[in-house]
Write a structure and sequence with these properties.
The protein is α+β, with helices and mostly antiparallel strands and 450 residues long. The chain has twelve helices and 19 strands. Strands 9, 10, 12, 13, 14, 16, 18 and 19 form an eight-stranded antiparallel sheet that branches. The longest helix is centred in the first third of the chain and has 19 residues, at 95-113. It binds zinc ion (ZN) (2 copies). It comes from Glutamicibacter ardleyensis.
């Protein structure tokens, strides 16, 4: 999902949204171009009159304006612990597609917050307002509810890659903007390891000419390297990246869960070999990505566990190289996306750890700053940004908690040194007569009581 978070907290209640329900709205604005982007911009600019909502959806995309934890103004104080989803009804949009996309968004939220059908509300349930009006008029509420049942509406899933989870999706602790899950091979640096289809489906896109280290995008905007995209019978999509597809695999081929798709390679922009796996709620929409953990959990599969093959393996034409080159395997860094390293470098710099210029590269300065961070937290000092290091992101959380104690209550304690934290730190610095650079250096931290 695209994120365009509102920086101001003027239009939300204080406190943390308990996410006990989801409320469906429609914008009631049928003007042309009154789409999700226009509504997100309206919220960003502070132009929405006395109202706020978490997510807006049209026929093209869903855009998040507030984290789930924000208490938005969308159906009165009674609905402050509800997540608000607005469906756009602009005349130049396709309402039916927006309706289905909104159902996918609600379905993912249900999985994320463990909510059953009864927790899905209409705006009308809170206040009696005729909203979502178009859906109500057409009598499509039950249809909408049924589309929100169950993430990955499939019967079989197979672990796609043997190895270990090194980076989660942005929604569950991975870096913001990380649209998939990274699974590194059992031994760092291994290539030529088999990748299997997690779900049955149809091959939609194949890319096999990417260069090692190349940054050109391939089967989806922003993704680099070889790989493929498969659509599932329920309309979802699965993307496999940094994988050399089998020579025999072509667009239109049907695959079963567990079929061999190819072998992991060094193509694209990656610092150490891994499978970058993406799950999309709509295979046509690269921004409909959701956290693959939802599917792994639903099927009781541990990411990186040994795949259960079907035997329906397509014959291999080019023989894989089972033995990786023994020379100097690079340790896995856990992350692979430029944006990840920029976020890590910014956060480490903010902690005074001198990670260097945030250029999206895991260079020596970033590595030594990561090592210093690991040393501070009693972790293995390997300079790799794996799952353990990520969960120890306590320092940013401590800064956010301390800011909350100072009265900056309108932000999530998420361990991410994002725009909201920076703004709050700036305000705090202004108040305490410090340089207002938004960086929580040692002086600021001391003043915060850390
Ligand atoms: Zn409404
Ligand atoms: Zn990745």
């Amino acid at each position: 999902m695209k994120e365009q978070l509102v920086k101001s907290t003027d239009m939300i209640y204080d406190g943390i949204n308990k996410c006990t329900s989801i409320t469906v709205h429609e914008t009631a604005n049928e003007k042309i171009r009154a789409n999700a982007q226009a509504h997100a911009n309206l919220q960003s600019s502070g132009g929405a009159r006395q109202a706020s909502w978490h997510i807006q959806v049209d026929d093209v995309q869903a855009i998040r304006s507030y984290p789930d934890t924000a208490k938005c103004w969308h159906a009165g104080p009674a609905a402050a612990d509800s997540i608000a989803v607005e469906i756009c009804v602009n005349a130049d949009g396709d309402y039916d597609t927006a309706f289905k996309r909104a159902a996918q968004v609600v379905r993912d939220l249900r999985e994320k917050h463990n909510l059953n059908r009864s927790a899905i509300k209409q705006h009308a349930d809170w206040s009696g307002k005729d909203c979502p009006a178009k859906m109500r008029l057409a009598g499509r509420w039950q249809e909408f509810l049924s589309l929100t049942d169950g993430a990955v509406n499939m019967s079989t899933m197979v672990s796609p890659f043997d190895g270990r989870l090194t980076q989660n999706h942005g929604d569950s602790g991975g870096y913001r903007g990380h649209k998939g899950m990274d699974i590194a091979p059992p031994k760092p640096g291994q290539t030529g390891m088999p990748v299997y289809a997690a779900f049955a489906g149809t091959v939609r896109k194949i890319h096999r000419t990417a260069k090692n280290g190349g940054k050109t995008s391939t089967w989806a905007p922003g993704r680099t390297g070889n790989g493929g995209l498969i659509s599932n019978p329920d309309g979802e999509g699965n993307g496999y990246n940094h994988m050399k597809p089998l020579a025999s695999l072509k667009v239109g081929d049907k695959v079963e869960a567990g079929d061999l798709l190819g072998y992991n390679d060094k193509s694209g922009n990656q610092t150490a070999p891994h499978l970058h796996l993406e799950f999309w709620a709509d295979w046509r929409n690269p921004n409909s990505d959701y956290d693959p953990q939802l599917a792994f959990k639903k099927f009781g599969i541990k990411p990186g566990s040994a795949p259960a093959k079907t035997g329906n393996v397509t014959p291999v034409q080019s023989k894989p190289k089972p033995k990786p080159k023994p020379s100097a395997p690079k340790p896995s860094t856990g992350g692979n996306d430029k944006g990840d390293y920029i976020a890590i470098a910014k956060a480490l710099n903010a902690m005074g750890l001198k990670a260097g210029y945030p250029d999206g590269v895991n260079g020596p300065m970033l590595k030594s700053a990561t090592k210093a961070f690991q040393k501070q937290h009693g972790l293995v000092q390997d300079g790799n940004w794996g799952a353990v290091t990520q969960t120890k992101f306590e320092e940013v959380k401590a800064i956010q908690r301390a800011l909350q104690k100072q009265g900056y209550t309108k932000q999530g304690v998420d361990g991410y040194y994002g725009a909201q934290t920076t703004e709050n730190v700036k305000d705090f610095q202004r108040r305490t007569g410090l340089v207002q650079d938004g960086k929580a250096g040692s002086i600021t931290q001391k003043k915060l009581g850390l």
